[in-house]
Structure formats: structure tokens, C-alpha cells
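Person: I keep going back and forth on a fold encoding question. Show me how you would write down a chain together with its backbone fold. Please set it down just below, with no commentary around it:
Helper:
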Amino acid sequence: MWLIKLQLLLFLPLLGEQVAMSWVRDGATLLFEGDATELSFELLIPNRLYHNLCEDVKERFDQEGEYWLLRRGGEGIRRCKRFGQEGYHLNEPRVVFDAEPKVLEEIDHLAQELKSKRILVYTGAGISKAAGVWLMDELEESLGLGRENWIEESSCEIEKLILRCKEFTRLCLESEPTVAHHALAKGVKEGLFELATENLDLLHEKSGVDPVRIDAARIRQGADLNRLAEVDYLISVGLSRDDKGLISWYKTQNPNGKIVALNLTKPSYLGSEDLLFKGDLQRVVPALMERLTFFCSSSLPASPHLHHSNSEKACEGSQSSN
């Protein structure tokens, strides 16, 4: 079973952007880091896997301690940072079996459910699909990571893999926000909710808002999302699985909190106490934001300031929560 680890290392719009990702399987690690022009690419394998390779493939690797390393990188590209699992997972990802969440079919019913509640919106890769950014399953398939002999084939197709990683990075950095991104940005600016994301792309920033980017170490230290227990509803948007463990962490911090999933299918993290609204995110999200804005009144408490910034946000007519 794949353990997927994704992390945005740098967001500096004026100085340049970089994306870094890694996959780990059976002790072997594939990593890349860089931008759409130049990438540092590494395949790191333990001795037991190295000795099973054919001789011409072995020649591509250099020994590094107890491991063997195949590395490619352009001039000036530094070695890939090897992330530890503790820096990626906030909590053990939440998986619920045989759950039957309540399925809502009317936007008005969902908006009424959320009325006068404190909300955190958490976006996954599904919201960016309409912008052309690959889903993780699509990227993994393009890299051939599901193949039984993936290490040997990756070693022989390294240049092809680098080109695919560059294309994914370009999509993350250059794609434009969708109508769903703009609708969420409007809601953030009106103080309806706080926004967090696990996505590598910059579509939220391009829509005019600064989301909380999930960093396990920072959250554990209380730098981000330190008032998660005050959130009544966590709305997941285009999130098929609890990859980073944020939803699990939220349920730990607030056992009475509920998840509302906006998705095409039922995600694996929903419990029977949670809610599901199925549909096209590019239609569902703007419609929901419109209804939430309509319900915004003095009876609606502002969402708690979960970000580490000190900027104040409040829904018109409501009182800011400190």
C-alpha cells in the first residue's frame, strides 16, 4: 500500500516558487523538488532492493551509506529534502468503515444546517481538477508508480519521469483559479469561514486569499489552526481521503464536530454523524457560498481566527470572534 507524502516547500511569489513531493514504498523513496524549469530528482533504495536489480540498472546508482541513490538535477539545483513521516502526518488518517452519513440533496438544506455555525473549509485536489491540475491518482499513474517492477522501470525512464514531474509542477504554479476558488475567496473575505488546503497549487492565492497550508509540525506547536476545537463544521471540498490526518485531528480536538463533504463520491473519512453533498464542485460551491452569504446576519458568529495571522475578519452585521 502506498504511503503518499506531499509538501509545498516554498511560496515566494516575488522570488520564485518550488514544489516538492515524495512517495515511499517498501523502503524505497522517490522524490522531486524544483520548479517547472529545473528539478532535482532522486530515487533512493535500500540494499535488499538494489541487489535484485539487473546489472545494467545497478550501474545507474551510487552508494550512499546503507542505501543506493540515483539522482538527476540541473545546475544549481540542491539535493532533495527528505521529509520524515512525522513532518507530514498531523494524525493517523481517519478511515471509517460501513458508515452511513446523511446525504443532503438541496443546497438550501445544507445552508440551513450551516447557519449560525463556526466553519472551516478544507480543500483537496478535486477543486483544482477543473483548472487542469492533475489529481494525485493521475500523477501516480503517469509516473508508473503502480507497476510491480516500478523501481527498475523508473531507473530506465528517468528522463520521462522528470518531464512528467515538470509538467505537474507547471500546472501547480501556472494554472488559473476556477469559479469554485473565486467563490471560496469571496466567502473568506466576507468573514464566513477560515480556509485551509493541502493542495500544492497556488490557485487560492491567485484568487486573492491566503489559506492555511497544512504543516503538521506547525499545527502541533499551535502556530496554525490552534482553535480547531471551536469549529462546529469542517467542510471538505474535493477531498477523497484524509491524507494528512487533519480531519482525524479535528475529530480528536472536537469530538462533537461534524464533517460536511462536498464531493462526487462518499469519502472514506465520513462517519454516520457527518454529512455528504454530491455534485460538481464548480456548481455546488458557488451556490452554497451564495446561500451562506444570504444567511449572514447578526445571529451568525464569525469563524474563529484559526490562522496565525492577526488580520480581523467578520461577516457584515456579525461580531468578530477573538
User: Anything to note?
Assistant: DSSP finds eleven helices and 13 strands in the chain.
